[in-house]
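Lab meeting, item 3. Inverse folding demo.
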């Protein structure tokens, strides 16, 4: 079973939680970042994984100061370049004078050369989905600070870890895995809350292994292959981009059910990219299908945008559940399936 490692933090205080001796979870408004490196590590001895929202700088800096004092990281590593994972990457990279690593297929989106395809507000339901057409889709421009991850699979500044290509949610999405303790930083390849709902995104409830955020997932078959590749790793800890980190057999069972039943429980029945994925190459986005007819989605996007932005920028009154736990009901975010995922290629 999954177990908690920290009490529920106060909603009004900045909080960070140790998940391992050298990994700390920093929950932000609707997204997570991670500090990798032992407490008290010196210059060049730790790494920031992902960089939150545009207003996340203060919280990240306070977490860094509390763990590392004034030391600077070796690098910033991005699981992918979506707006909620690169919010303050440019300012922090400049402030610390460090490089930013990402998969080669993410380079166009972080060097000013290409925007991501439009999100799909028709999938998933919930305010985050309905208002997604108004969310930023880049690009940002990190210039010479942006560097591709090494082709040998290693992760700069993170000895013992390797990166796994997990496309679907983004073309160059990566997860980070350490074999020694089977620790997985999954990014958005899968998450542990219903991210399409603004309430769930903010409260991180219910806690359950679920598909990647649907409105920004633009290749569902690649996303399925990526989930199956990560399920085959049988992680002990899954630290995701959204939701609460989870650990143990219950988490693995939920992940196995998601992988096995992905077409039934994760792929939307209707949506812009369901049957025709977006297309990418080293230049960035090279094509995507036309939008579907979605009059209700258009109405909801206009009505709900102000509410969504206001709630995302204010955390008061929103608590964070226990890390490393399953859903309160003990069930996953998917219906029980017949067993673990069958052998399948892709994603790694």
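The presenter then showed the designed sequence:
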């Amino acid at each position: 079973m999954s177990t908690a490692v920290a009490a529920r933090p106060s909603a009004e205080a900045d909080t960070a939680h140790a998940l391992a001796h050298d990994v700390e979870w920093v929950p932000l408004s609707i997204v997570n970042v991670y500090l990798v490196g032992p407490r008290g590590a010196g210059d060049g001895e730790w790494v920031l994984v992902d960089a939150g929202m545009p207003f996340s700088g203060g919280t990240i800096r306070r977490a860094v100061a509390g763990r590392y004092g004034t030391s600077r990281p070796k690098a910033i590593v991005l699981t992918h370049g979506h707006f909620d994972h690169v919010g303050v990457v440019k300012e922090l990279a400049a402030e610390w004078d460090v490089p930013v690593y990402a998969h080669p297929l993410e380079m166009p989106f972080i060097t000013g050369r290409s925007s991501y395809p439009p999100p799909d507000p028709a999938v998933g339901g919930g305010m985050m989905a309905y208002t997604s057409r108004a969310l930023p889709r880049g690009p940002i421009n990190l210039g010479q600070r942006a560097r591709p991850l090494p082709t040998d699979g290693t992760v700069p500044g993170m000895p013992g870890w390797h990166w796994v290509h997990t496309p679907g949610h983004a073309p160059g999405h990566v997860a980070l895995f350490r074999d020694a303790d089977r620790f997985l930083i999954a990014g958005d390849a899968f998450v542990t809350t219903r991210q399409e709902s603004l309430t769930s995104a903010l409260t991180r409830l219910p806690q359950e292994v679920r598909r990647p955020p649907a409105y920004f997932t633009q290749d569902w078959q690649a996303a399925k292959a990526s989930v199956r590749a990560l399920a085959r790793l049988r992680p002990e800890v899954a630290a995701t981009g959204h939701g609460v980190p989870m650990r143990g057999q219950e988490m693995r069972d939920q992940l196995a059910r998601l992988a096995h039943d992905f077409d039934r429980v994760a792929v939307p029945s209707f949506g812009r990219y369901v049957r025709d994925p977006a297309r990418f190459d080293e230049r960035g986005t090279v094509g995507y299908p036309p939008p579907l007819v979605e009059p209700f989605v258009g109405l909801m996007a206009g009505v709900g945008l102000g509410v969504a932005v206001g709630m995302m920028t204010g955390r008061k009154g929103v608590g964070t559940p226990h890390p490393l736990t399953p859903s309160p009901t003990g069930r996953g975010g998917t219906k029980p399936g017949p067993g673990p995922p069958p052998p399948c290629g892709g994603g790694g």
